[in-house]
Amino acid sequence: MDSSELYHVKQQFFLGAYKALIGLSLPDTNSPDYIPTLVYQARAHIALNDPSAALALVPADSENVALKAVSALARYVSAAETASQEAALEELRDLAVEIEGDVEGTERDKHMVRVLAGTAFARAGEIEEALETLMQDTEDLEAVAVLVQIYLSINRTDRAKKEFDRAKQWAEDDLLLQLIESSIGLVASKDGYSNANSFYTEQLGNPSLSSPHILTARGVTRILRNEIPEAKSDLEESIEQQKGDGETLAAFVVAAGIESKKGEADELWTRLQTEHAAHPLVVDVARKADLFDECVAKFTVPPLAAPTAA
């Protein structure tokens, strides 16, 4: 069972309170909470798109498999060249094999290796490898959470629901399980998104939590519920707390477009294209624009019919 301190660390990470998490003091190196806290803080740096800070945080000479894995994930995220990315992925593949034997690390650390490896493989587009890696942890809720996100990303809501239903049979009704249910509810539009909206509102009422991630999530939920002014209020507050966040900007573009505020939507869209060129929304729109241009190029406009004499 987790200590109260580690529970708080995990709560901050799961709910996206990354800045608050990296501001926490690390436990003593002899504490059983030291390595898991260090891993979550490193993951928070990666989530904030600062993998160099994650690498600086982790001792370079550590033989612990979880610390090796989070360092490899940070190197993958920061790599600019394909060769460097593949080297980091290969290290994670090796670690996923090594943990089947006698290595330095607890069972918790071994579970974390699979979660981090699966995350990296999914980011690399190696979906089958990610699923295979994560499915080896049949009763690890973090592995289930990543599995569900992968299934939702490939429009397999049925498989996501199946994983969630299976987890309910053995997992405690904790925060992460509720978060998984809310994520599925957003995609499946279950109960008019009321469950997800209630969950995010409940978390935002926690005085010990400050999470722009949850504000953005509720903003997206409110867009889906056609509560556009309320959604924009959440998104504005989220951007104020974490300026330049790509997910929040993308949601703001959608909200402004629905509200038919073309000038605002165009300005936000330009900003999203400039600051987050690799964002899925930007990439998808660019791909569709190219496809449209290809179709136009293949289309021959027939000549206008000549007027007939009266």
From TrEMBL:
<feature type="coiled-coil region">
    <location>
        <begin position="89"/>
        <end position="144"/>
    </location>
</feature>
<keyword id="KW-0333">Golgi apparatus</keyword>
<keyword id="KW-0560">Oxidoreductase</keyword>
<dbReference type="InterPro" id="IPR011990">
    <property type="entry name" value="TPR-like_helical_dom_sf"/>
</dbReference>
<keyword id="KW-0653">Protein transport</keyword>
<comment type="similarity">
    <text>Belongs to the COPE family.</text>
</comment>
<dbReference type="GO" id="GO:0005198">
    <property type="term" value="F:structural molecule activity"/>
</dbReference>
<keyword id="KW-0175">Coiled coil</keyword>
<protein>
    <recommendedName>
        <fullName>Coatomer subunit epsilon</fullName>
    </recommendedName>
</protein>
<dbReference type="GO" id="GO:0004601">
    <property type="term" value="F:peroxidase activity"/>
</dbReference>
<keyword id="KW-0963">Cytoplasm</keyword>
<dbReference type="GO" id="GO:0006891">
    <property type="term" value="P:intra-Golgi vesicle-mediated transport"/>
</dbReference>
<keyword id="KW-0968">Cytoplasmic vesicle</keyword>
<dbReference type="Pfam" id="PF04733">
    <property type="entry name" value="Coatomer_E"/>
</dbReference>
<keyword id="KW-0813">Transport</keyword>
<dbReference type="GO" id="GO:0006890">
    <property type="term" value="P:retrograde vesicle-mediated transport, Golgi to endoplasmic reticulum"/>
</dbReference>
<dbReference type="GO" id="GO:0015031">
    <property type="term" value="P:protein transport"/>
</dbReference>
<dbReference type="GO" id="GO:0000139">
    <property type="term" value="C:Golgi membrane"/>
</dbReference>
<dbReference type="GO" id="GO:0030126">
    <property type="term" value="C:COPI vesicle coat"/>
</dbReference>
<dbReference type="InterPro" id="IPR006822">
    <property type="entry name" value="Coatomer_esu"/>
</dbReference>
<dbReference type="GO" id="GO:0006888">
    <property type="term" value="P:endoplasmic reticulum to Golgi vesicle-mediated transport"/>
</dbReference>
<comment type="function">
    <text>The coatomer is a cytosolic protein complex that binds to dilysine motifs and reversibly associates with Golgi non-clathrin-coated vesicles, which further mediate biosynthetic protein transport from the ER, via the Golgi up to the trans Golgi network. The coatomer complex is required for budding from Golgi membranes, and is essential for the retrograde Golgi-to-ER transport of dilysine-tagged proteins.</text>
</comment>
<keyword id="KW-0472">Membrane</keyword>
<keyword id="KW-0931">ER-Golgi transport</keyword>
<keyword id="KW-0575">Peroxidase</keyword>
